[in-house]
Amino acid sequence: MLSRLIRSETEEQAGAIQKHITQIGIVVLAVLGVLIGLHFYQKKTVEGHVKAGFLEHGLASANPVKRDVIQYYEEYGKMPSSNDELGLPEPADLSGRSLRGIEVTEGGQLILTFSYELGVDQGRIYLTPSLANPTMNSWSCTTPSYPKIEKLIPECEFRERG
Questions:
Q1: Which of 23, 50, 57, 73 has an alpha carbon 20 to 30 Å from 156's alpha carbon atom?
Q2: Distance CA 93, CA 104 (A)
Q3: pTM higher than 0.85
Q4: Strands 156-158 and 139-143, bridge-based pairing
Q5: Residue 70's domain is classified under what CATH number?
Q6: Rounded to an integer, what distance in angstroms lies between the CA atom of residue 97 and that of residue 94?
């Protein structure tokens, strides 16, 4: 009888210990799930900031070219249509870390071409001067390459080219 009582008590203790181990395991798994989720959220946030930094750097690199376009318009009464017309080097020579080049096209439009570091090889951003009042230095910013551009650069918008 005593041995049966001891065995019964031992089985209860073993069951209670197993129950506690299961509960601890569930808590550990929940904590790991939260930590993994935070890791991926932080990684995604950091990648977004890096991409935004590359894009902002590319847009800032275009500012002197934008000034040249406006000065050309003020002097000649028309928009330039090429880098050569503005006296600028080839597009690839106007590059930076992720910016592959700045090309001046018809109507003074600037095409900024970016590298794969932003997720799209040969990704493009178009800066178009306002022809309504070009001397006011008003430009639109569009891209067919970066669907989430507005989250990174609010003044730019995604627009499929067709």
A1: 73
A2: 13
A3: no
A4: parallel
A5: 3.30.700.10
A6: 11
Instruction: Calculate the dihedral angle through the C-alpha atoms of 28, 30, 32, 36, rounding to the nearest 10 degrees.
Output: 180
Please, which contacts does 105-111 make with residues 24 or more away whose CB atoms are closer than 8 Å?
A: 105/81, 106/79, 106/81, 107/79, 107/81, 107/131, 108/69, 108/72, 108/73, 108/79, 108/80, 108/81, 108/134, 110/62, 110/65, 110/66, 110/69
State whether the Cα torsion 3-7-9-13 is positive or negative: positive
- Ordered mean pLDDT values, 10 residues apiece, the chain (162 residues): 60 67 63 51 47 82 94 94 96 90 96 84 92 79 90 89 66
Our count of domains for the chain comes to 1
The model's pLDDT over 83-104, given as tens digits with 9 standing for 90+, comes to 999 999 999 999 888 899 999 9
Residue ranges making up the domain that contains 43: 2-158
| Distance separating alpha carbons of residues 128 and 107, to the nearest angstrom | 8
Q: What are the residue ranges of helices labelled H in 77-103? A: 83-86
Q: What is the dihedral of CA 118, 124, 126, 127, to 10 degrees?
A: 40
